[in-house]
Amino acid sequence: MPHKLRKVRKKRGSRTHGFGQVGQHRKGSKGERKAGRHKGGWTYVIAKEPDYFQKKGFNSMPVVKLKTSVINVGELDELSETLAERQKAKEGTRKTLLDLNTLGYHKLLGKGRVTKPLRVKIAAHSATAARKIEAAGGKILKDEN
């Protein structure tokens, strides 16, 4: 049972607690790094322990993230108009064909509204985007590139 009249309570403030010179009566090592290895002990490091200051352990591998270019459904109306002016979109009987892969897009997302019936050629799309294009009378052509 702990009590207040222990030696450690009596020796508070005495620095050595009755064990003589500072540093005596200590358990274990004082750590891995030795004092003076960058100063007076440098020649010892060069001669005997050349790997003393090297890092050890694992290196984390860099995470490679592929950049996916996405476009939203709400931007397709304006894009079809500008491409029709530049003759890059093929006008069909009723539906305009937009090849988004050749324009540098990889995925079609469902934000926004589409008002024209469009045929869209894209590698990947969301379910919301497909639903909105089909509701406007268009179709998504899946491209496996």
* Terminal CA distance: 75 Å
**Which descriptor suits the 3D outline?**
elongated
The chain-level structural class is: alpha/beta
Estimate percent helicity. 10-25%
Q: Would you identify the regions where 5 or more consecutive residues have pLDDT less than 50?
A: none
Q: What is the N-to-C order of secondary-structure elements (H for helix, E for strand)?
A: HHEHEEEEEHE
CATH topology of the domain at 70-142: Ribosomal Protein L15, Chain: K, domain 2
The largest sheet has its strands arranged as: 2-3-5-7
Written account of the structure:
- The chain is α/β, with parallel strands linked by helices.
- The chain has a domain at 70-142: Ribosomal Protein L15, Chain: K, domain 2.
- The chain is built from four helices and seven strands.
- The chain has helices at 7-10, 42-48, 76-85, 127-135, and strands at residues 70-72, 90-91, 96-99, 107-109, 118-122, 124-125, 139-142.
- A four-stranded mixed beta sheet has the order 2-3-5-7, covered by helices on one side.
- The radius of gyration is 37 Å and the shape is elongated.
- It starts with 6 loop residues before the first helix and ends with a strand.
- 13% of the residues are buried.
